[in-house]
Amino acid sequence: MARRGRRYDDGAKLNLKKVFAVAIIILIIIAGIIGIKNMLSSNSSSLAGKIENVYYYTIYKDGKWGVVNSYGENIIEPTYDEMIVIPNNAQDIFVCTYDVDYANKTYKTKVVNKKGKEVIKGFEKIEAIPNIDDDGSMWYEENIFIAQKDGKYGLINYSGKEILGCEYDSIKPLQGAKNSYIIEKNKKYGICDDAGNVVIEPKYKEIKKIGTDYKNGYIVINEEGKSGIISFDKSTVLAENYEEIKPIVGDNAYVIKAQDKYSVINKEGTAIFEKTFDDVTEINKENIVAVQEGKYGVVDMAGETKIDFQYEDIHYASDNSYIVKKDGKYGVISSANETLLPFEYEEIEYISSGNFMIASNTQNGEKISKIFDANFEEKISGKIDELNKTKGYMRVYTDETYKFYNFKFEEKKASEILTANKLFAVSKDGKFGFADKSGNIVIGYIYDDVTEQNSSGYAGIKKDGLWGAINLNGDVVVQPKYNLDKNEKIDFIGKWHLCEDMNANYYLDI
C-alpha cells in the first residue's frame, strides 16, 4: 500500500536562535524515526481506524493453515496442518488442531485469541459446531462449543463455562436445525438446546428434524423402528406407532407411511382424508404436493385434486402459485391450473423475503435471469451478481453495467446500499473504475470487471482475464494475476482471494 510521509519546512530555522534550532532538529529526527518505524510496520496501518469492524479469515498456503484480519495482517501464521475454524469471524476466537496422528486418528485442539493466547483450558478437546441447511449452505453455531473431558462430551460457551455437563458419549448438531443437538448415551439418542436444556432424554434409536424450525418438534424412532413426534416443549405429538413419518409438517398435518403408501393425518392420529400416495413432498396451507406413479400433483385437505398428476416436479411458492416442471422446463401455475409463467426456464426460484420470482436460463455460458413481481410482471433482466436477502437488495449486471435494486425494484445508487464503503464501482463503454460517494472518479475506466468493496475495504479488479485487488483507499494491493474463472464469488482480503467453493470459506494467495 502507498504511504505518505510528512513534509517539513526548514526555511524558518535560519531566523531562530541556535538553541531553538537544535531543539527543532531533534524533534525532526524523532519525528523521522517515528515515521520510519511506522513505514516499517504493517503495510495496512494506513487503513487503521477506517474500517468499521475488524473481521478474521482462515487462510491456506503451502499445505498449511493460518488466520488473517481485515487488514490482511497474519494473525496466525500458516503453520497448522488442519484448517483453523473461525466460528464467528467478528470475534477473535480460533479453534486450532495440532499434534495430528493420521495413522492412529488422534489429535489435539486449543482455542486461542488474536494474540495467540489459549483462552479456554481444562478440556481434552474443544470443537466448533458446523451445520448445513437444506440448501447446502454451512454455518457454525455461535457462542457454543462441544467440549471433551474425561472422555465424555458436553457443551461450553466461548468463556469456557459448561452449559451442559460432560457426561455424554457424543454430541453433534441436528443437521439443518438450529438450537438442536443430538446427545448420545449408551448408544441411545436425545436432544438438547443451546442453553444446555435436555429436551428429549437419550433413549431413542434415531432422531430427525421435522420442517425447518426446531419449534415444529422432532421425529423420534424407537428400538422397534417405530416413529413418533415429540414437541420442543417435551410433549408427545404423535405416539411411536408409525412405520415412517416424513420430515414435513403443515398446520396440524403430518405425513405418515403405512404399507408403502403415504397419507396425511392430524395430531390426533386421524386421517385427514382417505387418499394415499406414492409420496408426499410438501404441505402448504390447505394444499398438499403429492406423487402418483412418478408424476406430481396437488390435492387439498379434502382430498380433491387441484393440480393434475402430470408434472415432473412441483414446489409451492406463494399465494397459491407453484413452480412446476414439464418436459424438462420450469414454469409457474396457479392452483386453478392457470399458467402464470410459461414453461421455458431452466430454473425458477421464489424469494419469499421480497415476494418475487427469479427465472433463469443459460446464455453463452452465463446464467441470465428475469425477475418477476407478485403479479408476474417482468421488472429486471440481467445477470444477478449478488442477492442479499438479509438487507433486501440485489446487484445486477444489465445494460453493460452493474445496477443496484431494492426488493421494491427501485434502482439505487451503490452509495445508498453500501453505506460503509468509500469507493464504488462505475462503468463506461464496457470498462470499469471507481468513484467516491460524490461521484468523483478516483480510478479511471481501466478494468474489464470489478467488484464492490467488501466489509474489509477490498475490491476485486479484473484485467486481461486476471483478477487482483485494491484496498479501502484505491491502492492496488494485488496486481491482476489470478485466474478465478472457476470461483463462485470473487473476494479479496489483502493479497488473499476466496477459494473456489465459497461455502468452504477460506482464502488463498495462489
* Radius of gyration of CA atoms, rounded to a whole number: 29 Å
**CA-based shape:** flat
Structural class: mainly beta
CATH topology of the domain at 120-237: Lipocalin
Strands ordered across the widest β-sheet: 31-32-33-34-35-36-37
Largest sheet report: 7 strands, antiparallel
Q: Number of helix segments?
A: 2
Measured by DSSP, the beta-strand proportion falls in over 45%
Output the CATH class name of the domain at 120-237: Mainly Beta
- Number of beta strands: 47
CATH architecture of the domain at 120-237: Beta Barrel
The residue fraction in helices comes out at under 10%
Which stretches of 5+ consecutive residues score pLDDT under 50?
1-49
Report the span from N to C terminus.
20 Å
Whole-number mean pLDDT = 89
